[in-house]
Specification:
CATH topology of the largest domain: BirA Bifunctional Protein, domain 2
Number of domains: 2
Structural class: alpha+beta
Largest sheet: 7 strands, mixed
Shape: globular
Number of helices: 6
CATH superfamily of the largest domain: Bira Bifunctional Protein, Domain 2
Strand order of the largest sheet: 1-2-3-7-6-5-4
Order of helices and strands: HEHEEHEEEEHHHEEEEE
Radius of gyration: 18 Å
Distance between the termini: 42 Å
CATH class of the largest domain: Alpha Beta
CATH architecture of the largest domain: 2-Layer Sandwich
Number of strands: 12
């Protein structure tokens, strides 16, 4: 914790750090802080989570001392309609960080999972509070499998998940990873604010390996299939069916249907 505070030196994100050996969920704690008026850029980091949260109501396996679990409070000057831009920006920051620690290119699975060799290494969960016309805050939660060997993973994720250590062949310094990630988020957040979403969308597309491939998207009440075209200006996934009709997907779980 002290090492991160001493070395970080970012202008916006990470000036205030909240560290816990164990917590129920870094996102829950960060949300409570945000509701109490915490400043933008405050970061919550934990060694372990007892109720780590994933997308679509899933849990995030969070053993102690193995991985990176952090949440960041943001107060972007965006309308609620454009809130998904924060998720996509953070996926770029996370992918750019991860690629410097492993000899293989990571990919983004829309909207915010990071995969390597088709196995999940990291995930992002954004939770927001807003009025009808503006975002009050966004809590950006990130979990990265760092030094998490396959044999220690639950059987339920053993064949679908991976870690930095598994791919690099050696343990990874979690402090160095946290520092680089917060710096990357700080830089990408500033780029989004200064340059707008189109340049960030191009960087996101550079990690999107499913463009032009057939996928199935499972949503709450239905599943649709089609060719993944990319994302639009709001961050929605564009899916094209057999008739050439294009559909915007706001939320869902993407499953590849071809290599």
């Amino acid at each position: 914790m002290e090492e991160i505070e001493r070395q970080l030196a970012t202008e916006r994100l990470g000036k205030t750090l909240h560290y816990f050996p164990e917590i129920d969920s870094t996102n829950n704690y960060a949300r409570n802080l945000a509701e109490q008026g915490a400043m933008e850029g405050e970061v919550v980091i934990a060694e372990s989570q007892t109720r780590g949260k994933g997308r679509l109501g899933r849990s995030w396996v969070s053993p102690a001392g193995r991985n990176l679990y952090l949440s960041v409070i943001l107060r972007p000057k965006l309308s609620p309609l454009h809130a998904p831009q924060i998720t996509l920006m953070s996926a770029v920051a996370l992918a750019e960080t991860i690629q410097s620690f492993i000899p293989f290119p990571p990919e983004i699975k829309w909207p915010n999972d990071i995969l390597v060799h088709d196995k999940k290494m990291a995930g992002i969960l954004t939770e927001s509070s807003c009025t009808t016309d503006r975002l009050l805050f966004v809590v950006l939660g990130i979990g990265v499998n760092v030094n998490f060997p396959r044999e220690e993973m639950p059987v339920s994720i053993r064949d679908t998940a991976t870690s930095l250590m598994t791919l690099s062949g050696a343990p990874v310094d979690r402090t160095a990873l946290a520092l680089q990630l917060i710096r990357s988020l700080n830089r990408c957040y500033g780029d989004l604010e200064r340059l707008g979403f189109p340049p960030m969308a191009e960087r996101w597309a550079g990690f999107f390996r499913l463009q032009g491939k057939r996928v199935k998207v499972e949503m709450m009440d239905q599943a649709v299939q089609g060719k993944a075209i990319g994302i639009d200006g709001d961050g929605a996934l564009i899916l094209e069916d057999e008739t050439g009709t294009r559909r915007r997907i706001i939320a869902g779980d993407v499953i590849p249907l071809e290599p």
